[in-house]
Specification:
It is a single chain. It contains ten helices and two strands. By secondary structure, the chain is mainly alpha-helical. A hairpin with a 6-residue loop joins β1 and β2. It has a domain of 98 residues. The chain binds zinc ion.
Length: 239
């Protein structure tokens, strides 16, 4: 198990280089692939790549000759493991790179899903109308509170909280954000109360209505035998 021990000192810089490559490729997948494949070269002490079309050399400049980090030997088990990790089985990870050139993070989706779980918890059944309204509430809550500024103390300094990774091995300081604005809920309730008082139903325009029409067209039902045949044709086991 200690045969790849030299790799451990490279893990952090390999991770950083993957982030850097995706963040700085500017949408150019050829450049991104060359940058990713330069990682195993860099760890082996090779820093120029004349055969490349775009990424001809590492961007780090001259390295400190006194550095103690060991280079990995090309062909060693540790080096082969690194190349395999970057390329994936049958280059599967390289084939994913065209989807990553825009450096889009999933954080926003995850935040939205978290809010959605609050308004539409999965353990409770809601009908279609409830589901739509609760999705709208999710969108309002998200849009009103997205990009909130950091909370500051009396002296005007940003307040931070400690964030520890799941494995407990590293921690970072994260700025605490100002509390969420929930005024919009009060406004909705006030309108509802007002409508009840005056006995009027407000005219509503639901922004998702037009979009829902796209899903209104249902396919004609196919005979069950045809569906079973199609399933069998796809299966690797029941031919
Ligand atoms: Zn290098």
């Amino acid at each position: 198990m200690f045969r790849c021990i030299a790799l451990s000192s490279w893990i952090k810089s390999v991770k950083n280089q993957i982030w850097y490559s995706i963040g700085s490729c500017g949408g150019n997948v050829e450049l991104l692939i060359e940058m990713i494949l330069a990682i195993p070269q860099h760890v082996a002490g090779i820093h120029s790549f004349p055969e490349n079309k775009h990424f001809k050399a590492c961007r780090h400049g001259p390295l400190d000759p006194a550095r103690e980090k060991p280079w990995l030997k090309v062909g060693s088990l540790a080096h082969k493991k690194l190349v395999l990790a970057l390329r994936g089985y049958k280059d599967s990870r390289l084939k994913d790179l065209p989807q990553m050139t825009e450096f889009q993070h999933t954080t926003t989706n995850e935040q939205l899903n978290k809010i959605h779980n609050t308004y539409l918890p999965k353990h409770t059944f809601f009908g279609a109308v409830q589901a739509r309204v609760r999705a709208c509430l999710t969108a309002i809550d998200h849009n009103v509170n997205v990009n909130r500024p950091a909370k500051v103390d009396a002296a005007g300094n940003v307040i931070y909280s400690r964030k520890v990774t799941r494995d407990g091995q590293s921690e970072t300081a994260i700025p605490v954000k100002v509390p969420k604005d929930t005024q919009w809920r009060t406004k909705i309730m006030e309108e509802v109360v007002e409508a009840v008082k005056v006995g009027a139903v407000p005219t509503l325009e639901i922004p998702t209505d037009e979009h829902l029409k796209l899903y209104g067209k249902k396919l004609a039902r196919q005979p069950m035998e045809d569906l079973v045949e199609a399933t069998k044709a796809r299966s690797r086991f029941s031919k």
